[in-house]
Design a protein that fits this description.
The protein is mostly helical. The protein has a single domain (47-479), classed as Amino acid/polyamine transporter I, CATH 1.20.1740. Helix content is 70%, strand content 1%. It has 19 helices and two strands. A two-stranded antiparallel sheet has the order 1-2. A hairpin with a 7-residue loop joins β1 (166-167) and β2 (175-176). α3 runs parallel beside α13, α5 (82-95) packs antiparallel against α13 (274-303) and α9 (177-191) crosses α15 (325-359). The longest helix is centred in the first third of the chain and has 36 residues, at 121-156. Keywords: Membrane, Transmembrane, Transmembrane helix, Transport. It holds the Pfam family AA_permease_2. It is a multi-pass membrane protein.
Length: 491
C-alpha cells in the first residue's frame, strides 16, 4: 500500500511542480540585482544618455507612417482635420504606461520583463514570442518599404534592378534583394556596439528631422488656406466617413504611425541614469513625433486637396504641387533615412528581448552571451538579422504590416495590465515616474487597444493564433524543462 501511495504522490507532484513553475513571478528585486550581478555573464554597457533615448524613440517612430499613412487617413476619413487625428493618436499612445514601468524596472526585455514580474513565466514567454511580431516583423516591413524608396531613387538616376531581384514572391519577383541587404548592413552596425549604433542613429534622426522641417517650412510658404475649409468636412452618413467620427477613425489609422516609440524601454538598461532618462526618452519621443506629424498633416492638406491624397506617396505628391522638381529627391532621401532608423531600432529592440529571455533560460544561453569588448549579444543580434533579412526578402509587405499591428497592440495591453497589477502588489515600491490619474489611464489604454484590435481583419487574428500556438509548442517542448530546472528564487 505504501508503494502505491508514493506512486500516486509522484504522479501528482509533477503537474503541481510544473503549474507552480509556470505561475512563478520573477521579483523586481531579483531583476534589478541581476543587472549588476558581476557574475560570469557581464551586464550590458551603460553608455546611452536621455538624448540618445529620445533619438532612439524618434528614429523608431517616424518612418513609413509619415510618408504613407498621412494621405490615406486624410483622403478617406479626416480631411484637413487630419492634424486632430494625430493629436488623438499621440494621446492614445501616451496612455500606454511604458514610462512608469521603464523607470521602475530599468532592465532589458521591455514588456517581456514587466510581464515576468507580474503574470509569471508562461505569460512572459508568450509576450516575448509576441514581441517577435512587433520588432523583427516590423524591421522586415520597414526594410521592404526602404527597398521601394531606394529603387525609386535609383530609377531617378537611370539605375534599375532586374524585376526578379526587386520584390518578394507574390509581388512580381523571387527575392527582395535591397530589403535583405539593408537588414544585414544594419545588423553589422548593431554588432559593433550600442554606442556606435546610437551615434549613427542620432545623426540619421537629425538628418531626417531636418528634411521633414524643410518640407514643413517650404510648404508653409505655399499653402492655400482655402483647402483647409471646412477644417472638418461634414459626415457623409456613416461612422468614420468624415465629420468628427472621421477624425476618430483617422486617429485609429495613424495610431500605427506611433508604433516604435516603446523601443526606448528596451534600451533603459544601457543608459547612465535609467530612472531619470527612461521617462524623458519615452515622453520626449512621443512629443517630438506628435509635433512633426501635426505639422506635416497641416502643410500636406494645405498644399493638395485632401480628396487627391489617397496615394502611396502623398508627400511626394505635395512636393510636385510646389513645382520644385529637385526637392522631390530630398524628400525621397528623407524617406530612406526615416526608414533606415526605424529598421535599425527595431532590430536593436529584438536583440535585447532575446537577450533577456535567454538570460532567463527560456532560449538557449548563446543568445545571452555578450562580446567581452563591446558587451553586445553579437550572436543573438546576428541570428536575428539573418532571419529578419530572410523574411524581408521573401514575404510580401501587406502580410507583414498586419502582423506588426496586432502584435504591438497585444503587447500594449500587457504593459497597461502590468502597471495595474504592480500598483496593487507592490504599492510601496519607489516609482521615479508615475502615470497620473490613478488606474484610469491604464484602463483606458487597455480598452483603446482592444477596440483597435477588434477592427483588424479576421485573417490577421488567425495568423496571430497560429503564431501564438507555435510559441506554446516551443515553450512546452523546450522552455518549460529548463524553467523547472532553475533553482528556486529566494524569498
Amino acid at each position: 500500500m505504501r508503494s502505491d501511495f508514493d506512486l500516486a504522490n509522484r504522479s501528482l507532484e509533477a503537474p503541481l511542480l510544473l503549474t507552480s513553475a509556470l505561475a512563478t513571478r520573477k521579483s523586481i528585486a531579483t531583476i534589478l540585482a541581476q543587472q549588476d550581478s558581476g557574475d560570469a555573464t557581464p551586464s550590458l554597457a551603460r553608455t546611452l544618455s536621455a538624448f540618445s533615448l529620445v533619438c532612439i524613440g524618434v528614429g523608431a517612430t517616424i518612418g513609413a507612417g509619415i510618408f504613407v499613412l498621412t494621405g490615406t487617413a486624410a483622403a478617406q476619413f479626416a480631411g484637413p482635420g487630419l492634424a486632430f487625428s494625430f493629436v488623438l493618436a499621440g494621446f492614445a499612445s501616451g496612455l500606454v504606461c511604458y514610462a512608469e514601468l521603464a523607470a521602475m524596472i530599468p532592465a532589458p526585455g521591455s514588456t517581456y520583463t514587466y510581464t515576468y514580474a507580474t503574470l509569471g513565466s508562461l505569460a512572459a514567454w508568450i509576450i516575448g514570442w509576441d514581441l517577435v511580431l512587433e520588432f523583427a516583423m516590423a524591421a522586415a516591413t520597414v526594410a521592404v518599404g526602404w527597398s521601394g524608396y531606394a529603387q525609386s531613387l535609383a530609377a531617378d538616376f537611370g539605375l534599375r534592378l532586374p524585376a526578379l531581384l526587386a520584390a518578394a514572391p507574390g509581388s512580381g519577383g523571387i527575392v527582395n534583394l535591397p530589403a535583405a541587404a539593408i537588414t544585414l548592413g544594419l545588423t553589422l552596425l548593431l554588432m559593433r556596439g550600442a554606442r556606435d549604433a546610437a551615434l549613427s542613429n542620432a545623426i540619421l534622426v537629425a538628418l531626417k528631422i531636418a528634411i521633414i522641417l524643410a518640407f514643413v517650412l517650404v510648404g508653409a510658404l505655399h499653402v492655400k488656406p482655402e483647402l483647409w475649409s471646412p477644417l472638418v468636412p461634414p459626415n457623409q452618413g456613416s461612422f468614420g466617413a468624415f465629420g468628427w467620427s472621421g477624425i476618430l477613425r483617422g486617429a485609429g489609422v495613424v495610431f500605427f504611425a506611433y508604433i516604435g516609440f516603446e523601443t526606448v524601454s528596451c534600451a533603459v538598461a544601457e543608459t547612465r541614469d535609467p530612472q531619470r532618462d527612461a521617462p524623458i526618452g519615452l515622453i520626449g519621443a512621443l512629443i517630438v513625433s506628435t509635433i512633426l506629424y501635426v505639422a506635416v498633416a497641416a502643410v500636406l492638406t494645405g498644399l493638395v486637396p485632401y480628396q487627391l491624397l489617397n496615394v502611396p506617396d502623398p508627400i511626394a505628391k505635395a512636393v510636385d504641387a510646389l513645382g520644385l522638381g529637385g526637392f522631390s529627391l530630398i524628400i525621397k532621401l528623407g524617406a530612406l533615412v526615416g526608414l533606415t532608423t526605424s529598421c535599425l531600432t527595431a532590430l536593436y529592440g529584438q536583440g535585447r528581448i532575446f537577450y533577456a529571455m535567454a538570460r532567463d533560460r527560456l532560449l538557449p544561453e548563446v543568445f545571452a552571451r555578450l562580446d567581452p569588448a563591446t558587451r553586445v549579444p553579437r550572436f543573438g543580434q546576428g541570428t536575428i538579422g539573418l532571419l529578419t533579412a530572410a523574411v524581408a526578402a521573401f514575404v510580401p509587405i501587406d502580410i507583414l504590416g498586419e502582423l506588426v499591428s496586432i502584435g504591438t497592440l497585444f503587447a500594449f495591453i500587457l504593459v497597461c495590465s502590468a502597471v495595474l497589477i504592480l500598483r496593487r502588489t507592490e504599492p510601496e515600491r519607489a516609482r521615479p515616474f508615475r502615470v497620473p490619474g490613478g488606474s484610469l489611464l491604464p484602463v483606458l489604454g487597455i480598452l483603446g487597444c482592444l477596440a483597435l484590435m477588434a477592427g483588424l481583419p479576421g485573417d490577421t487574428w488567425i495568423r496571430l493564433m497560429v503564431w501564438l500556438s507555435l510559441g506554446f509548442a516551443i515553450f512546452f517542448g523546450y522552455g518549460r524543462r529548463r524553467l523547472t530546472a532553475m533553482p528556486a528564487e529566494p524569498a
